[in-house]
Each structure stands twice: as C-alpha cells, then as structure tokens.
C-alpha cells in the first residue's frame, strides 16, 4: 500500500472514531440508569471508546447492518468487560444478592405472582429506606453477573426452525408484555421510556421530575420483578 493510501486510511479511521464519540456518550448515558451513583462517567466513556475503536477496526459493511448497531454492541460489551475485570463488587453485595434471590424467590413461588414492594420489605424484614438502599446495592452485582443487562429477555438456544422460532418469539413477547403490565405505574413508565423511547437516565429523570438515583432504583426494582415473573414462565419458554 502506498504511504498516501495508508495515511488516508488512518485519517478515515480517526475521523470515524471522532464522529462516533457522541454514540459512546449516549450508550453511557443509557447504561447509567442501571449503575451505582459512584461510578465515574469519564471512566465509563473511556471503556466505551475502547469498544468503539474495536468496532471501527472490525466492522464489515458487507454484512448489511448499520455501523451504529454494531458499534453499540461493542461499546456496551467493552464497558461490561472492564467492570467485570475490576471485580469491584464487594463480597457482602454478592451475599446480599444471593439472600434477596432466595427470600424473594420463595415468596413469589408461594404467592404465584410478583411480590409487591411491601411484601418484599416484610419478607426481608426491612423498612422503606433500608429496602431502597438494599436494592441499589445489589443492582451492582446483578448487572455484571448478567450476560445481557440491557433487556430482561430469555435467549433462544439450539437449532430452531423458522416456524418454531416465530412461535417462540410470539410467546416470549406475550409474556414480556404480561410482566410489564404487572409492574407498578412508575416502574412501568421508567422501562417504557428507557427501552421503547430510548431515553437516557438524565432525560427520564427530567421527564418524571425525579432524581437520577430514584430513576435507577425504579429501574432496578422493575427488572427484578420482571425477572421473577419470567422465571416462573421459563418452562413455557424453554
């Protein structure tokens, strides 16, 4: 390759990276709804830029999808990988998460439905303030221990024919909508604004006139409720 061609290629690469820095910031803004307040936004952006660079270097336009779609996956993956490698979740948080799953899981199996906040508080023997703080803490572990923390979905595995896959997807969507419909109104609204409207944590907090930390709490509770409901449906969806 001629020197001028190499220079032009490097310039194009650098330009593509610079043009998509706003995409990294957008992804970080969206992910912030599910991350603890103490996480440094600049660190998250730097992790995301590493993913963006990999996306620029590995993107193949002949595959037929948009660069932004591919880049978002790489950016999020890079951030999650960095958080996992740091292993910044304290052992006490891991234990609390296990305790929550055990207690609330037994409660919801007994009830045959998603537990209300009041029922979970009673089962965990916590008051309102303790419960909100507890949920915020265990969200940290939940995020890095989940393969896909952007959507509470059940993955498809195995070799499924098209008709079977269509039926599976139809059933999955039906149960996701059922789970969403069972949420308290504010939690339902947060998920709708986040997943369907594509708003960031800051934008959701402005729309609902609530603090970012409160939005994070509502998001965490909604995900846990949906996970519990879908967990009871996994035999249908397997």
Notes on the protein architecture:
The chain has three domains: about 5-85, Rna Polymerase Sigma Factor, Chain: A (Orthogonal Bundle); about 90-145; about 160-238, PhyR, sigma-like (SL) domain (Butyryl-CoA Dehydrogenase, subunit A, domain 3), CATH 1.20.140.160. The protein has twelve helices and no strands. The chain has helices spanning about 5-20, 20-30, 40-60, 65-85, 90-110, 115-125, 130-145, 160-180, 185-195, 200-210, 210-230, 235. Helix 2 (about 20-30) packs across helix 3 (about 40-60), helix 2 packs across helix 4 (about 65-85) and helix 5 (about 90-110) crosses helix 7 (about 130-145). The longest helix is centred in the middle third of the chain and has 21 residues, at about 90-110. Residues about 145-160 have low confidence and may be disordered.
Keywords:
single chain; Butyryl-CoA Dehydrogenase, subunit A, domain 3; 238 residues; Rna Polymerase Sigma Factor, Chain: A
Q: What would CATH call the architecture of the largest domain? A: Orthogonal Bundle
Largest sheet: none
Fraction in helix: over 70%
Which word captures the global form? elongated
Helix/strand/pairing category: mainly alpha
The strand count comes to 0
**Cα-atom radius of gyration:** 20 Å
Portion of residues in beta strands equals under 5%
**How do the helices and strands follow one another from N- to C-terminus?**
HHHHHHHHHHHH
Determine and state the CATH class of the largest domain.
Mainly Alpha
């Amino acid at each position: 390759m001629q020197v001028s061609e190499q220079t032009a290629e490097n310039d194009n690469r650098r330009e593509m990276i610079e043009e998509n820095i706003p995409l990294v910031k957008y992804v970080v803004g969206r992910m912030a709804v599910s991350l603890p307040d103490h996480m440094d936004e600049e660190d998250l952006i730097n992790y995301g830029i590493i993913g963006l660079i990999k996306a620029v270097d590995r993107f193949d336009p002949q595959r037929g999808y948009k660069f932004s779609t591919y880049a978002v996956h790489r950016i999020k993956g890079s951030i999650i990988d960095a958080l996992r490698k740091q292993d910044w979740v304290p052992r006490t948080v891991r234990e609390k998460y296990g305790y929550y799953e055990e207690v609330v899981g037994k409660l919801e199996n007994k009830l045959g439905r998603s537990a209300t906040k009041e029922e979970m508080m009673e089962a965990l023997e916590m008051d309102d303030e303790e419960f909100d703080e507890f949920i915020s803490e265990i969200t940290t572990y939940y995020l890095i221990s989940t393969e896909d923390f952007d959507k509470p979905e059940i993955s498809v595995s195995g070799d499924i024919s098209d008709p079977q896959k269509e039926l599976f997807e139809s059933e999955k969507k039906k149960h996701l909508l059922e789970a969403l419909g069972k949420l308290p109104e504010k939690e339902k609204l947060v998920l709708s604004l986040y997943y369907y409207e594509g708003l960031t944590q800051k934008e959701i907090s402005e729309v609902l006139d609530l603090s970012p930390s409160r939005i994070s709490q509502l998001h965490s509770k909604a995900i846990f409720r949906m996970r519990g409901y879908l967990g009871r449906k996994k035999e249908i969806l397997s």
